[in-house]
Amino acid sequence: MRILRRLREKLGKRGVDAAEMLRRSFLVGARRLELEEVGMQLDALRERLKGKVEPYELARIVDEERRER
Question: Which sequence spans correspond to the domains of the chain?
Answer without folding.
Answer: 5-68
